[in-house]
């Protein structure tokens, strides 16, 4: 076997694989023998089928399989041994590849196009200045969090007359034409979450025993809320865009819990704090930590912008990449390709930059690091619902459940890898630290 490389330009090359009979004959002979031992052909006992018959029946298919296997392995080994940094997989050459006839040929020549990754500028130093934002935790934000926890651990008290924040329990009936069967659903709802003010007003001032006629699709905006209320799949909720009858059985209102040691312990853990001042301070710290992933994400976007500017004139094998994208993605039309291609190039550049920094600094990601990333994500998810004192074993179980999903595992690995590289870059550049309000921070993404 002989492999030749011809460079077309700085980004494209052609690999020619010259395969002779001596390269595949032994493997083909062995496979034919294996077939002969296992073949179940009428008129012959198993293991007694002549090799000549097997060759006549399956010889060409076996030849094709073994040659393809040899080509695949040889391509991979050549790229590995020569440390070629390629983009995507090799593709069969469209202009120089000669016709191959497995019926008559004994020697074969395969030509493959490969796309070579360009040299990337992944150097960062103190001359590079990147903003790093932190969000100011105001007294108002802390007070809002305190109120949330007081409601969370408060008590529900029955009410005579309804207000918007109250929780309604009742029977929900779909209004149908006469003669159609009625399905009664036990349903809970809170007018506070209704986006339509007219629909919301229908519930205000009502009492237990009253009936309200309303349209859930008009009242609520979130399709998941509607799906849960009607007990139907979210993709089918448009079939219920009409009035329902809601008979109120009970109205309850959440009363604030006392701001005392019992509440402190429920929110933060036993004796984590012992007074209101410490409680508020700890909540402020927790909220600041909850915002850290968003701040890190903004930092990543700004570093990415800087890195792409450093590489804005880098030449890519665009023709090859476009052909590869169209071959590998069935839904990739010319229009979609033209629209998405600039973003795809930016993604490739950023990926090469990350790999370059990772290689220069011997970055390796372990399963334990990925698990820690998943646990941190789980902790933030729980904290968003006021659960700031989640036991470690619960976080472990939740994180492992997420990692059992292949796509989620890939995402957490990528996030861990990216964070590790960004930590290195953060130490190489100059950080311009800025404290902003939550509103100002959100405007940075507009």
Question: What is the gist of this entry?
Answer:
The chain has 446 residues and is α+β, with helices and mostly antiparallel strands. The protein is 49% helix and 17% strand.
Structural features, described:
- The protein has 446 residues and is α+β, with helices and mostly antiparallel strands.
- The chain folds into three domains: 2-116, Alpha-Beta Plaits (2-Layer Sandwich), CATH 3.30.70; 129-140 and 264-443, Trigger factor, domain 2 (Orthogonal Bundle); 155-255, Chitinase A, domain 3 (Roll), CATH 3.10.50.
- Helices cover 49% and strands 17% of the residues.
- The protein contains 14 helices and eleven strands.
- It has helices spanning 21-38, 51-81, 139-152, 197-201, 216-219, 223-230, 261-268, 276-310, 318-328, 334-360, 367-384, 392-403, 406-428, 438-443, and strands at residues 2-7, 12-19, 86-92, 108-116, 129-135, 155-158, 167-174, 184-189, 211-214, 244-255, 430-436.
- The strands form three sheets. Strands 6, 7, 8, 9 and 10 form a five-stranded antiparallel β-sheet that branches. A four-stranded antiparallel β-sheet has the order 1-2-4-3.
- Strand 1 (2-7) and strand 2 form a beta hairpin.
- The chain is extended, with a radius of gyration of 33 Å.
- The two termini are 57 Å apart.
Global shape: extended
User: What separation lies between the terminal Cα atoms?
Assistant: 57 Å
What's the average pLDDT? 91
Low-confidence stretches: none
**What's the helix-strand series?**
EEHHEEEHEEEHEHHEHHHHHHHEH
Q: Name the CATH class of the largest domain.
A: Mainly Alpha
Strand content: 15-25%
Q: How many structural domains in the coordinates?
A: 3
- Share in helix: 40-55%
Oligomeric composition of the shown chains: single chain
CATH architecture of the largest domain: Orthogonal Bundle
- By DSSP, the count of extended strands is 11
User: Major sheet: size, sense and barrel closure?
Assistant: 5 strands, antiparallel
Count of discrete alpha- or pi-helical segments spanning 4 or more residues: 14
**Structural class per helix/strand content?**
alpha+beta
Examine the coordinates and then state which fold CATH places here, giving the name of the CATH topology of the largest domain.
Trigger factor, domain 2
């Amino acid at each position: 076997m002989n492999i030749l490389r011809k460079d077309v330009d700085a980004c494209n090359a052609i690999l020619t694989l010259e395969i002779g009979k001596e390269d595949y004959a032994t493997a083909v002979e062995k496979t034919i023998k294996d077939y002969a031992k296992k073949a179940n052909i009428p008129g012959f006992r198993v293991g007694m089928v002549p090799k000549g018959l097997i060759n006549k029946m399956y010889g060409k298919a076996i030849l094709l399989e073994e040659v393809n296997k040899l080509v695949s392995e040889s391509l991979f080994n050549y790229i590995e041994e020569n440390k070629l940094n390629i983009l995507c997989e090799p593709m069969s050459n469209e202009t120089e590849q000669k016709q191959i006839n497995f019926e008559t040929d004994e020697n074969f020549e395969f030509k493959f196009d490969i796309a070579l990754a360009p040299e990337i500028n992944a150097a960062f130093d103190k001359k590079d200045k990147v903003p790093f934002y932190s969000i100011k935790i105001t007294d108002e934000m802390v007070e809002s969090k305190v109120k949330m926890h007081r409601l969370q651990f408060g008590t529900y008290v029955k009410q005579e007359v309804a207000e918007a924040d109250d929780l309604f329990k009742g029977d929900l009936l779909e209004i149908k034409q006469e003669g159609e069967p009625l399905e009664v659903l036990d349903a809970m709802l809170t007018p506070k979450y209704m986006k339509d003010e007219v629909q919301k007003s229908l519930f205000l001032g009502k009492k237990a025993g009253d009936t309200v006629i309303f349209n859930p699709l008009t009242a609520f905006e979130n399709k998941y809320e509607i799906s849960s209320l009607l007990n139907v799949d979210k993709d089918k909720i448009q079939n219920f865009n009409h009035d329902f009858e809601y008979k109120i059985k009970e109205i309850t209102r959440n009363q604030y819990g006392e701001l005392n040691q019992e509440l402190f312990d429920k929110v933060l853990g036993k004796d984590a704090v012992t007074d209101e001042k410490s409680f508020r301070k700890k909540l402020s710290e927790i909220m600041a930590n909850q915002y850290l992933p968003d701040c890190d994400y903004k930092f990543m976007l700004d570093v990415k912008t800087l890195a792409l500017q450093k590489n804005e004139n880098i030449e890519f094998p665009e023709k090859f990449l476009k052909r590869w994208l169209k071959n590998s993605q069935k839904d990739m039309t010319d229009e979609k390709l033209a629209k998405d291609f600039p973003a795809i190039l930016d993604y490739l550049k950023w990926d090469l930059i990350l790999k370059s920094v990772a290689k220069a600094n011997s970055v390796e990601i372990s399963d334990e690091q990925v698990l820690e990333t998943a646990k941190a994500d789980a902790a933030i998810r729980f904290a968003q619902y006021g659960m700031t004192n989640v036991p470690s074993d619960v976080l472990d179980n939740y994180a492992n459940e997420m990692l059992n999903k292949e796509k989620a595992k890939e995402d957490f690995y990528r996030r861990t890898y990216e964070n590790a590289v960004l930590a290195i870059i953060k130490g190489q550049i100059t950080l311009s630290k800025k404290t902003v309000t939550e509103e100002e921070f959100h405007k940075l993404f507009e």
